[in-house]
C-alpha cells in the first residue's frame, strides 16, 4: 500500500485503490474524510483552525489549514476525480477535535473547528455519517481508498475502525 | 524518587559549554544578540551548524550567508539556542519515548513547538514577559520525560484507564504514584545537575503548576505551561500523556487571551515550528 501522508493543513484526494491517506496526531485539529462510493475516490483535509480570516497569507499558502477554505477545495478535488460535482452521495466522516481536560471556552479550539466544519458541510448539503470526535486524546487516522475504511489509533488506547 | 531513576539522572552527559553559556545568556531578559554571537563565534562546530541552518532550503535565501553575525541576526537567538541544545542533547531529545508510546523525536518536536508557542504567548502577557526566556524554557520544559519514559514502559493503558475512571487526576499524578516523582521534578533535578539558571530550573519544575511559582517569574512559567498545552492541542504531544494534563486556569491573571488570540498563537507557533524543524532537518541531511 502506498501512503499519502498529510501534514497539518494539507489536503489530498485519490482514486488509486492502492493508496492509504493518512494524517498523524490530531489534537484539536479535525480530519474531514470524504468517500465517494460511486467513483471509489477518497479525500481528506487536516483542518487546524475554523476561520481563515485570522491570516490571509497562510490561507493562500495552505488553504486546508482552515475549515472555511479547506472543505470547498477538497470537494472540488473530489469532483475532479469524477462523480457529481455538488458533493451529494459523498460519505463524510469526522475525526479529531479533542479538548483539554478542563472546560475552558478559550482553549476549546476543537469544538470551534467542529462547529465550523459541520456548518460548511451543511451549506454543501452534506453531513457526517460517523464521527469520532472530542474527548481528551490525540488521534492518528487513515482511510483506505479502495474501501473507504477509516482506521483511528491513539498511543495507549490501541486502534479502532470508524 | 526511585533509586534507579536518580542514578539515570546522574549518568546523563553534561551539555556542551556553548549550549550551557547560551542558556545562561538567554535566561537573562536583558540579553543582546551580540552576547549570542560571541558564544557562537568561538565554537567552530556550532558556527558550521548555524551557517548550514541559515543557508538551508527552508529559509530560501537568494544569497548565501557566510558570517556568524549575519546568520545569528537572521535566525534570532531562539534558533541558535535550538541548534545548540539539539546538538548537545541529541541522545535525550531524539530517543523514542517508549514509556509514553511516543515516537522517536517526539520529545524534540513537542519541546520545539511548545517553545514557539510560549514565545508567542509572551506577547499576550498583562505584564511584560521575556519572550527569549519563554522560548528557552519551553524548549527544555519536558526534558525529564527522556528519563521518566524508560521507567514507565508498559503502563500507558493502565494510566489512561485510571485517569478516565477518576482514580488519578492526571498523568502527572500517575507518574508520581508509579515512580515517586513526575517528569517535571525529574527535569528539575536534571536542570540542577546541568547548572541551568534558576529561572529555567523553576520553569521546568513548575510548568504544570505555574500558580506555585514566585510572583516575579509566574507569568513566564504560565507562558511555558500554556505553550505546552498549545503544543499538545496542535498535535505535537509526546505520546499517551498528550492532553492528559490540567490547564492551570489562573493563567487569566497573567495573560489576556480571547479565542482568536489563542488561535493566532497556535497558527504562528505552528508556522515557526514547521520552518524551524525543516531547516534543522535539512541542515542535518546536508552532512553535519
What does this structure look like?
The complex is a heterodimer of chains A (162) and B (288). Chain A has one domain: 60s Ribosomal Protein L30, Chain: A, CATH 3.30.1330. Chain A contains three helices and ten strands. Chain A has helices spanning 56-61, 67-80, 109-123, and strands spanning 2-6, 11-14, 19-26, 30-36, 41-47, 91-96, 128-133, 139-144, 150-154, 158-161. In chain A, helix 2 (67-80) crosses helix 3 (109-123). Chain B is an all-alpha fold. Chain B has one domain: Hypothetical protein af1432. Chain B has helices at residues 3-11, 17-26, 33-41, 44-54, 68-75, 77-88, 90-94, 106-122, 131-140, 145-151, 156-164, 171-179, 183-193, 198-205, 218-233, 259-285. In chain B, helix 2 (17-26) packs antiparallel against helix 6 and helix 8 (106-122) packs antiparallel against helix 9 (131-140).
List the helices and strands and how they pair.
The complex is a heterodimer of chains A (162) and B (288).
Chain A: E1 2-6, E2 11-14, E3 19-26, E4 30-36, E5 41-47, H1 56-61, H2 67-80, E6 91-96, H3 109-123, E7 128-133, E8 139-144, E9 150-154, E10 158-161
Parallel strand pairs in A: 1-3, 6-7
Antiparallel strand pairs in A: 2-5, 3-8, 4-5, 4-6, 8-9, 9-10
Chain B: H1 3-11, H2 17-26, H3 33-41, H4 44-54, H5 68-75, H6 77-88, H7 90-94, H8 106-122, H9 131-140, H10 145-151, H11 156-164, H12 171-179, H13 183-193, H14 198-205, H15 218-233, H16 259-285
Amino acid at each position: 500500500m502506498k501512503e499519502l501522508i498529510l501534514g497539518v493543513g494539507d489536503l489530498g484526494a485519490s482514486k488509486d485503490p492502492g493508496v492509504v491517506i493518512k494524517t498523524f496526531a490530531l489534537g484539536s485539529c479535525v480530519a474531514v474524510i470524504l468517500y465517494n462510493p460511486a467513483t471509489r475516490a477518497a479525500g481528506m483535509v487536516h483542518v487546524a483552525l475554523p476561520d481563515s480570516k485570522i491570516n490571509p497569507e497562510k490561507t493562500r499558502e495552505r488553504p486546508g489549514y482552515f475549515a472555511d477554505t479547506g472543505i470547498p477545495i477538497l470537494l472540488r478535488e473530489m469532483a475532479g476525480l469524477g462523480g457529481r460535482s455538488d458533493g451529494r452521495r459523498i460519505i463524510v466522516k469526522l475525526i479529531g477535535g479533542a479538548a483539554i481536560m478542563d472546560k475552558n471556552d478559550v482553549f476549546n479550539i476543537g469544538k470551534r473547528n467542529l462547529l465550523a466544519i459541520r456548518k460548511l458541510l451543511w451549506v454543501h448539503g452534506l453531513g457526517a455519517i460517523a464521527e469520532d470526535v472530542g474527548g481528551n486524546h490525540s488521534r492518528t487516522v487513515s482511510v483506505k481508498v479502495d474501501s473507504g475504511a477509516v482506521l483511528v489509533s491513539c498511543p495507549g488506547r490501541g486502534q479502532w475502525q470508524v | 524518587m526511585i533509586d534507579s531513576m536518580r542514578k539515570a539522572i546522574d549518568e546523563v552527559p553534561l551539555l556542551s559549554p556553548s549550549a550551557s553559556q547560551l542558556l545562561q545568556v538567554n535566561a537573562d531578559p536583558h540579553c543582546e544578540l551580540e552576547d549570542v554571537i560571541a558564544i557562537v563565534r568561538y565554537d567552530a562546530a556550532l558556527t558550521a551548524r548555524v551557517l548550514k541552518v541559515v543557508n538551508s532550503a527552508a529559509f530560501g535565501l537568494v544569497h548565501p550567508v557566510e558570517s556568524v553575525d549575519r546568520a545569528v541576526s537572521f535566525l534570532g537567538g531562539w534558533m541558535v539556542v535550538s541548534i545548540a541544545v539539539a546538538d548537545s542533547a541529541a541522545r535525550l531529545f531524539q530517543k523514542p519515548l517508549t514509556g509514553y508510546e511516543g515516537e522517536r523525536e517526539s520529545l524534540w518536536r513537542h519541546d520545539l513547538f511548545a517553545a514557539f508557542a510560549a514565545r508567542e504567548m509572551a506577547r499576550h502577557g498583562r505584564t511584560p514577559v521575556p519572550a527569549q526566556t519563554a522560548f528557552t524554557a519551553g524548549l527544555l520544559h519536558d526534558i525529564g520525560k527522556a528519563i521518566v519514559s524508560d521507567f514507565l514502559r508498559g503502563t500507558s493503558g493502565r494510566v489512561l484507564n485510571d485517569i478516565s475512571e477518576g482514580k488519578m487526576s492526571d498523568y502527572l499524578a500517575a507518574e508520581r504514584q508509579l515512580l515517586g516523582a513526575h517528569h517535571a521534578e525529574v527535569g528539575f533535578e536534571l536542570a540542577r545537575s546541568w547548572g541551568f539558571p534558576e529561572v529555567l530550573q523553576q520553569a521546568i519544575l513548575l510548568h504544570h503548576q505555574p500558580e506555585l511559582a514566585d510572583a516575579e517569574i509566574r507569568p513566564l512559567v504560565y507562558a511555558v505551561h500554556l505553550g505546552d498545552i498549545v503544543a499538545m492541542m496542535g498535535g505535537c504531544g509526546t505520546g499517551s500523556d498528550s492532553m492528559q494534563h490540567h490547564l492551570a486556569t489562573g493563567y487569566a491573571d497573567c495573560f489576556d487571551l480571547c479565542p482568536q488570540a489563542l488561535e493566532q498563537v497556535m497558527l504562528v507557533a505552528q508556522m515557526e515550528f514547521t520552518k524551524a524543524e525543516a531547516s534543522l532537518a535539512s541542515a542535518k541531511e546536508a552532512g553535519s
